[in-house]
Automatic annotation (TrEMBL):
The lineage of its organism: Eukaryota, Viridiplantae, Streptophyta, Embryophyta, Tracheophyta. Its EC number is 2.4.1.207. One of its GO terms (molecular function) is hydrolase activity, hydrolyzing O-glycosyl compounds. The keyword Magnesium does not apply. Residues 3-55 form the GH16 domain. It comes from the Eukaryota. It comes from Salvia splendens. Residues 91-138 form the Xyloglucan endo-transglycosylase C-terminal domain. Keywords: Glycosidase, Hydrolase, Transferase. This is xyloglucan:xyloglucosyl transferase. One of its GO terms (biological process) is glucan metabolic process. Gene3D superfamilies: 2.60.120.200.
Length: 140
């Protein structure tokens, strides 16, 4: 099980379920998506080498044709095990179909291309910011 984020049908982020390795994963609760903008010039932009061009502020984001594919959580109780189970591998959703598994190799190549060409900062590689050790989700 993985949470995948795509923009224009190109994967930009993937969060794998590594619960068996003791890593937390949002499998049994409802999830939401949030976006934010902050000044991280001193640490997130290649160690401060790349500065944000604030002359274009304020920044405005709009979404056109936004689609969120997810299993709707139809319960008013966050810990409703039956409602969560209905979102499991029942085969009723497009992401559970065999054709999606065939797409995996192509998507992995696309994700690597995005990371190689657009990723400026990866907190899972920032040992300077986390001298006591990287966050759990960053390990194998």
């Amino acid at each position: 099980m993985k949470a995948k984020f795509l923009v224009d049908d190109i994967p930009i982020r993937e969060y794998a379920n590594k619960e068996r390795k003791g890593k937390p994963y949002p499998r049994k609760q409802a999830m939401g998506i949030y976006g934010s903008l902050w000044n991280a010039d001193d640490w997130a932009t290649q160690g401060g080498r790349v500065k944000t061009n604030w002359t274009n502020a304020p920044f405005v984001v709009t979404f056109n044709s936004l689609e969120i594919d997810a299993c709707a959580f139809l319960s008013d109780k966050a810990d409703d095990v039956d409602a969560v189970a209905k979102c499991g591998k029942s085969g009723q959703f497009w992401w559970d179909k065999p054709v999606v598994k065939e797409e995996h190799k192509r998507r992995r190549k696309q994700l690597k291309w995005v990371r190689d060409n657009f990723l400026v900062y990866d907190y899972c590689r920032d040992v300077g910011r986390f001298p006591q050790g990287l966050p759990k989700e960053c390990h194998g």
